[in-house]
Amino acid sequence: MSADSLSHTASLAAADPSSVAEWFIVMSPGSDAEQASQKREAIREPLQASGRRHRFVEIGDGGIVAACDSAARLAAENGGVLVAAGGDGTVNCAAQAALRYGCPLGVVPMGTFNLFAREHGLPLDPADAVDALLAGQLEPVQAGLVNARVFLVNASIGLYPQLLEDRENAKKQLGKRQRWIAVAAGLVSLFKWRRRLTLDAELDGRLTRLRTPSLFVCNNRLQLRRVGIDEALVGNVGSGRMVALVAHRLGAWGKLKLLLRGLVGKLGEAPELDSFGLRSLDVAVPFARRIKVSTDGEVQWMTPPLRFSVSPRPLCVMVPLPEQRKPQE
After folding, report:
1. CA–CA dist 181, 178 (Å, integer)
2. Does domain 18-135 have CATH number 3.40.50.10330?
3. Where in the chain are the domains?
4. Which of 37, 47, 49, 182 could form a disulfide with 170, with the two C-beta atoms 3.0–4.6 Å apart?
């Protein structure tokens, strides 16, 4: 751990998020207004019962990124906590802001996968999650970076960002209630993808050339365990290491086999996939002026070269006490 990380970790010991720190809450917008109102009340009620000062930072014209930035600034100025109520994408926006301003981060899971919350033992019911955080503690948590963009769960280039984008486009065209159609659209994208990236990569100081349809870098032990990656690699994630997954060139049958192995938790046994641990990975993409990069499920354009690395400064995250953490599922 670097000197900056040690200093940051030491500062956490003096912080006390369970006493008087005000919560600045950013709640992801939902398509169902009534359901969103119910979730807001589920958060508000235990906070009022405990006497914890709090305010909801509304999402205005600047969107959720601007709201997280505003909430993080307020938390830093007032000795408070930025709390993200939403899924992994919302948590990602909040983590970006929390790391920038150096304020603590809390999470109330309200998404589909909630991989970050699950890894840290948070209950998935919003009211229960609030209760767990009120009685919880601060811990330093490793964040990944791709260039200057934070990711807590994963970052990827190639097939995966395209699949996410096609899935979201299908949802917009067909409606979020037609989720099975969106899943089908993602599968069509999977089997239509023919592009293979050529990457000039420097892995922890070693130069190599990779040819792959997709590069996937994971910073979440739970996700890696779910798909069956070797525990010798998974166990080091969070201690200054991440795991990269690189697929070989695949035909339709190879893609199907890889998908099925992932679904049954046997991906680490696939001969069509290489996996390795890393602290940093520098990637040049010859002849590409821009490339799509996904971070925790959100897709954006970036300019190569790309640098995947562990943030030199950890996030300060509110988590339940060890004896109150839910088992990872």
Report:
1. 5
2. yes
3. 18-135, 150-310
4. 182
Share the mean pLDDT of the chain.
86
DSSP 178-189: -HHHHHHHHHHH
Widest Cα–Cα separation across the chain:
59
CA–CA separation, 188 vs 182, rounded Å? 10
State the Cα–Cα distance between residues 46 and 311, nearest whole angstrom.
Answer: 34
| Cis omega (within 30 of 0) for bond into 123 | no
Alpha-carbon distance of 198 to 287, in angstroms, equals 10
Q: pLDDT tens, 81-108?
A: 999 999 999 999 999 999 999 999 999 9
pLDDT winner (highest mean) among 23-32, 35-44, 290-299: 290-299
Give CA–CA dist 206/174, Å, rounded: 46
Residues 108 and 50 sit within 8 Å (Cβ to Cβ): no
3-state helix, strand, coil in the chain (%, to 5): 40, 30, 30
pLDDT at 217: 97
Three-state secondary structure of 259-312: HHHHHCCCHHHCCCEEEEEECEEEEECCCCCCEEEEECCEEEEECCCEEEEECC
User: Region 10-34: what's the mean pLDDT?
Assistant: 68
Beta-sheet pairing, 144-146 with 137-141: unpaired
Structure tokens at 184: 């089908």
CATH topology of domain 150-310: Tumour Suppressor Smad4 (2.60.200)
